[in-house]
């Protein structure tokens, strides 16, 4: 990675404007760096969202149809070992459907019910079987699949330590290049922007379209990048 992207140095005056302290004049030789670090990890869990949409002549029948599909799906998930707390299915939307003939008043043709189910999967190898169960239980839409990592804080700390080491290495290199050396830290400005970016799957597989092992691997082969950064003002040795 280009060092220009990793660090910024200003001698004599602060270049950071994120805080009033860093924008203030500093009455001694110093330099400023931005250290960056990142960790690449394999996902080990996922959250997926599915929904069932039904249109019926009346609102009661529409609601009943989606409730039945969701109930069957939840029962199958729990039978497969999914904890109830990892299933969120409370929301439902009902809307009247109209036909709009030309030069006539709108005509009520039925009611559409839409109910979503969000499932947290802690065993990624079971993800595809849960999706297959959803399609077999009357769920007619897979909205998204979000791949995640369970122990986020551990990897966040690793990325943070890499950012700190990067800031120190860049500062030492810059100081040496100008015939000087680092003489301690004056100020640290830390605002994390490194929360892991979940990997969103937008494609799904039809049941039986590929071997189960190949489908499972298509999820676990993806990576999640966790980043962190730190701004540091270092003091330079007095000459």
UniProtKB/TrEMBL annotation:
Superkingdom in the source lineage: Bacteria
Biological process per Gene Ontology, one example term: DNA damage response
Keywords: Signal
Signal sequence extent: 1-23
PANTHER family: PERIPLASMIC IMMUNOGENIC PROTEIN, SLR1258 PROTEIN
Name the UniProt record assigns to this protein: Oxidative stress defense protein
């Amino acid at each position: 990675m280009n060092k220009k992207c990793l660090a910024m140095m200003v001698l004599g005056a602060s270049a950071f404007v994120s805080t009033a302290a860093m924008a203030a004049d500093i009455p001694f030789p110093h330099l400023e760096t931005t250290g960056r670090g990142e960790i690449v990890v394999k996902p080990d869990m996922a959250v997926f969202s599915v929904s069932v949409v039904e249109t019926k002549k009346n609102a009661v029948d529409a609601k009943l149809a989606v409730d039945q599909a969701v109930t069957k799906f939840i029962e199958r998930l729990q039978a497969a070992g999914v904890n109830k707390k990892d299933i969120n299915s409370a929301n439902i939307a009902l809307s009247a459907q109209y036909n709009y003939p030309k030069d006539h008043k709108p005509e009520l043709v039925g009611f559409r019910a839409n109910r979503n189910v969000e499932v947290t999967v802690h065993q990624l190898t079971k993800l595809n079987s849960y999706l297959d169960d959803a399609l077999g239980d009357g769920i007619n839409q897979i909205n998204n699949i979000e791949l995640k990592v369970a122990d986020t804080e551990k990897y966040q700390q690793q990325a943070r330590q890499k950012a700190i080491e990067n800031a120190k290495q860049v500062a030492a290199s810059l100081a040496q290049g100008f015939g000087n050396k680092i003489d301690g830290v004056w100020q640290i400005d830390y605002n994390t922007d490194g929360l892991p970016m979940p990997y969103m799957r937008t494609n799904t597989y039809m049941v039986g379209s590929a071997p189960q092992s190949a489908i499972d691997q298509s999820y676990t082969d993806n990576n999640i990048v966790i980043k962190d950064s730190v701004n540091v003002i270092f003091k330079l040795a007095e000459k």
